[in-house]
Amino acid sequence: MKYDHxxxxxxxxxxxxxNRKMFVDALRKTMIRSLDGFGVKVKANxxxxxxxxxxxxxxxxxxxxxxxxxxxxxxxxxxxxxxxEAMKGTALNFVKDFKDNSTFKIEVKRADKEYPLKTxxxxxxxxxxxxxxxxxxxxxxxxxxxQIMVEVRKDAIYMYHEVIRCVGGLPxxxxxxxxxxxxxxxxxxxxxxxxxKKGVEIEAIHFHSPPYTSPQATDKVKQxxxxxxxxxxxxxxxHIVPFTELQTTLYDKIPDNMxxxxxxxxxxxxxxxxxxxxxxEAIVNGENxxxxxxxxxxxxxxxxxxxxxxxxxxxxxxxxxxIVTMAKEYNTYETSIMPFEDCCTIFKPKAPKTxxxxxxVLKFETKVDFEPMIEKALENIEMYETNAKEDTNAFDSLx
Length: 399
Ligand code: ATP
Ligand code: MG
Description:
Strand content: 15-25%
Radius of gyration: 27 Å
Distance between the termini: 27 Å
CATH class of the largest domain: Alpha Beta
Shape: elongated
Helix content: 40-55%
Mean pLDDT: 93
CATH topology of the largest domain: Rossmann fold
Bound molecules: adenosine-5'-triphosphate, magnesium ion
Number of helices: 15
Number of strands: 15
Structural class: alpha/beta
Number of domains: 2
CATH superfamily of the largest domain: HUPs
CATH architecture of the largest domain: 3-Layer(aba) Sandwich
Largest sheet: 9 strands, mixed
Order of helices and strands: EHEEHEHEHEEEEEHEHEHHEHEHHHHHEH
């Protein structure tokens, strides 16, 4: 089947009435960036978008659209004249690709209420035409193997038979900005994807402790943001914080069973200051209730006390195996399980407290002046920036 367009259906943004334009504009921008190089034309309307394919491969184009947040589903479509002959010919062309001895159904959406043929007439006409010109296919209206969709709209008729589910959510850049605490583990990249789904733009912060952590461990985190960026079509900045001085001081000065709590507290303090600087409105992490000692409610309470920022935990209540499935689906799993030590793993205490007392933690922390070390760490942040799609003039030339 030769398709000429991709039909793009929007996700939750169809619930927006007043500021829909802002959402559509944002989605159009991401689609144009992601499809740069295909030589296609993007036309995003209020309710749906069409990608005119010219010579591009529809399945390759749809692969690039699948993970763009804000898109609910896509279909490769044929745009035809509003005539009986065009509809009949296209229906037969679809059927040629169907398996032998299969069943089908014609489904009509008549958005153009002035079209002379009614829904039922079109179904009958096309069903009859297909049966007349084929031998080994039957109609089944209840449970068909294939559905041929006919959308009669003002400008043309669109026909298709495949609907491919996409990621849904809201378009990138419509939900504000958050700072993601990104380790090299399985959880935090998944947390990043989940928050991006809601249209939130993210920057990431990673703490490393050279020479205790290897350059490969930091490279792995860079690879993770590359995957996240490539998939969503949105660039991500990664702030790499030198944490060695703070980490070794914590190790020396805070009793072993409380050092994890303090480490997380200091990380969150640094993250909050960076969040303010980059105008982020929330901090995101990959914490999961009860997963480890630092993620019990009591621990979260003691750690969270250092910040007034909302700390979002998209994975809070999931099962670990659900998170693993998501990481595989997001394509970060293989990178996450590469065996390079994270700073928290190396300095991990033998028996961290599952119920750390905030008073006790504070008692030990106040004996150390962390402030100059925090400032120094912030001053020495190294930046890594992805380049999802080189900026081009595609935006202008395609509109
Ligand atoms: P895992 O899959 O091993 O649980 P994780 O990334 O979730 O990996 P945890 O030890 O559970 O690691 O840490 C909880 C959260 O704290 C992480 O999800 C991440 O948001 C944050 N975090 C941990 N270590 C770092 C680090 N070195 N830099 C930035 N954030 C970190
Ligand atoms: Mg975890």
